[in-house]
Structures are given as C-alpha cells and as structure tokens.
Amino acid sequence: MGPRVVSAAHAGRDGLTGTLASTSGAACLFMLAWRHRSIRTITWHWLLVALGLAAGVTSIGFTRGAIHGQVMRVLLFYLTPAWTALFSHFILRDRLTRADAALSLLSLAGAVTMLWSPELGVPLPVDLAEWAGLVGGMGFAMSNVLVVKITRTLPA
Known about the structure:
Layout: H1 15-34, H2 46-68, H3 80-91, H4 98-115, H5 128-153
Helix pairs in contact: 1-2, 2-5, 3-4, 3-5
C-alpha cells in the first residue's frame, strides 16, 4: 500500500490557512538561512509594512477567489494594469501617458468581454470570491507600485 495522502481539507485546514502558513514559513526560513546577518541592518519604514500588507492582500485575495469561485469570474484579478496605472499616478506622481490609458482601457475592455453575460448585465462582482479576486488584483498592483516607491525613497 502506498503512502497516504491527506489533503488540507481532510486535515481541517482550508486553502487560505495553507497559503498563509506556507508563505510565512518560507519567508522565515529564507531570512534565517540566507540573510540572518542582514536582519540587524534593516531600516524599518512604513513603506515596508505597507508592502507586506499589500502582498498579503494579494495572496489572500487570489487564493480565496480561486478556491471559492469560478476561475473565469476571478479574472477580475487581471485588471491589474488598470489599477497599476492609477496607483502609480497618485502614489508615485507618474504622468499617466496615452499608452498607460490605452493599456488600462484595454484591460477593462478585456474584463468586460470575458465576464459579460446578458442575463447578469453589467459585470460587477457578485459574490465573495469575485470581490476577493478584484481586491487581490488591486493588492498586486499596489505591491508593484510600492516596490518602485521603496526603491525611490529608501537608501540602497
């Protein structure tokens, strides 16, 4: 008889718990194994905390949406280009170019095309999984923008 495989659901855990545990564990092991001397040199800044929160929202939103929703509807995560253009304009004070605006509109048009249903009407999130996908995409965009903000703000 082969090894017994126990899924997270059988062990009394859901996908969110598994994601949080594995991601946190991997980060801690990396810091302890490869960067243990560097921990003392970290200069704490609110941007680092904000980046951690945005990355956490991304992970939780996408995982929650993918586990509990239809993957097609969780494509709201892929509105990231539109959110990135907006966030970089307001947070980084980047100029919103025509190319940025076109990419944002293309992203929105793609989402509408994929999610449009005559029975449902306007493709707005209708359940927790869809909202999680949307918020996860916003978190991903915010993470990308905050990484750039950190490289511009904090010393190397």
